[in-house]
Design brief:
By secondary structure, the protein is of the alpha/beta class. The chain has 13 helices and six strands.
């Protein structure tokens, strides 16, 4: 029943290959500089003709050696690096024959892959040290609920590298498997059925739910209105718009009806091909508006979650500036800021608050933490914030609470 769709983490072999590739490129860069200086001095001191005829064979060996170092190193890091990304790989290829620029790009590649290798080796060491503790082996399994406009896919995990890291530390993971875009009520119906199926088929009694974005609204509705509270031990909402988004009201109010219908038709048609049966773009977006979300939350929050034995908490994050997020969040950040204040690129900070405990994540480094960063969408190792370790500690806390 445990539908494992976790992405494979960097294995020991891949990390060693990444480290070796980075080392080879570093040696190549240093040795090219040293040998070039030596060769130029030798040619200037002894004369070009005499030195060339005397040194042709070591020059040939040096060229062969340097080519082996460079191509071996570049192939290894291109094959194994996650942080290098597609853009940097393309830049590396495009600038490979441009004098001076290719050296700058090579230094950038060495820097990026070196940091990644050191970070991943340290993470592996940490996981090995605490392996016996199984700090994420909670009493009840974890049900991870995606947000709007995404699906739980077999080969592309919505939660990035997070589930694999949780499983390495003892967690049992399930996924919501609900459609990408429905009204909160209809998504909640699918989640309620999913929760009951997991409990019935595994005998686990309850689940701990971690829900991102609109998934938090769907989860609250399922528990409060659809009778599954006896099967839920805890709800953790991540960057969920509990009070909705003011900018969504603005967009729906200003967008021409014809344009809305065309976008909705295109979206619904595409996601039907991807597995949704009855996607509804308009219903999903409408339930994210401040007016509608406040109405839904007002109804849901009449339910006594604590009295029903369900521990509740919420988490939010802040981008700080537009450049903290990738497209399209870097475009929407300033726009959302005008309507909703400090935000994660989509949801304003005041809308995150819900439950018995609230955590607001603010990176001490210059780089903020976006809506997408909270599900490891870009698989980026963010300076000052380790998304995988954040979730490990989050689930470890649930374990410590006996959940």
């Amino acid at each position: 029943m445990n539908d494992r769709r976790t992405e494979k983490p960097l294995t020991v072999a891949r990390i060693h290959m990444l480290w070796m590739g980075n080392l080879m490129l570093s040696i190549f860069l240093v040795s090219v500089v040293i040998l070039s200086i030596w060769l130029v001095n030798r040619l200037l001191d002894d004369g070009f003709k005499e030195s060339f005829f005397e040194l042709w064979w070591p020059i040939l060996l040096i060229i062969i050696f340097e080519n082996l170092l460079f191509w071996g190193g570049i192939i290894l890091v291109y094959m194994t690096s996650v942080q290098l990304g597609i853009r940097m790989r393309i830049i590396g290829i495009a600038c490979g024959m441009i004098p001076v620029v290719h050296i700058i790009v090579l230094i950038m590649i060495i820097s990026i892959t070196g940091r990644e290798a050191r970070f991943e080796k340290a993470k592996m060491k940490l996981d090995e040290q605490r392996s016996a503790q199984q700090i994420c082996r909670t009493k009840y399994p974890i049900l991870m609920v995606h947000g709007v406009f995404f699906r739980d896919m077999k080969h592309l995990n919505y939660w990035g590298r997070v589930p694999a890291e949780l499983e390495k530390n003892g967690a049992t993971i399930y996924y919501g498997n609900h459609q990408s875009a429905l009204s909160v009520e209809n998504s909640a119906k699918e989640l309620a059925l999913r929760i009951k199926n997991i409990v019935e088929e595994t005998g686990c009694e309850k689940v701990n739910i971690i829900a991102h974005s609109k998934g938090g609204l769907d989860t609250k509705f399922a528990v409060a209105a659809l009778g599954v509270s006896p099967y839920v031990a805890s709800i953790t909402t991540v960057n969920t718009p509990h009070k909705g988004c003011e900018f969504a009201d603005f967009l729906l109010g200003k967008a021409p009806a014809g344009l809305r219908d065309k976008v909705a038709a295109a979206y619904n048609g595409t996601f039907k091909k991807l597995g949704d049966t009855t996607p509804s773009f308009i219903d999903a977006v409408t339930d994210l508006t401040a007016s509608r979300a406040t109405e839904i939350s007002g109804y849901i929050d009449q339910f006594d979650f604590k009295g029903a034995g369900v521990y509740t908490q919420s988490i939010g994050s802040w981008m700080k500036k537009a450049t903290s997020g990738a497209f399209p969040l870097n475009m929407s950040y300033s726009f959302v800021n005008k309507f909703d204040g400090p935000n994660d690129g989509l949801v304003g900070e005041p809308s995150f608050h819900w439950g018995e405990h609230y955590t607001f994540l603010e990176n001490k480094k210059k780089r903020g933490i976006s809506h997408a960063d909270m599900i490891d969408l870009s698989r980026e190792n963010i300076a000052g914030f380790d998304i995988r370790e954040f979730y490990v500690q989050l689930v470890a806390d649930l374990k410590n609470r006996g959940l």
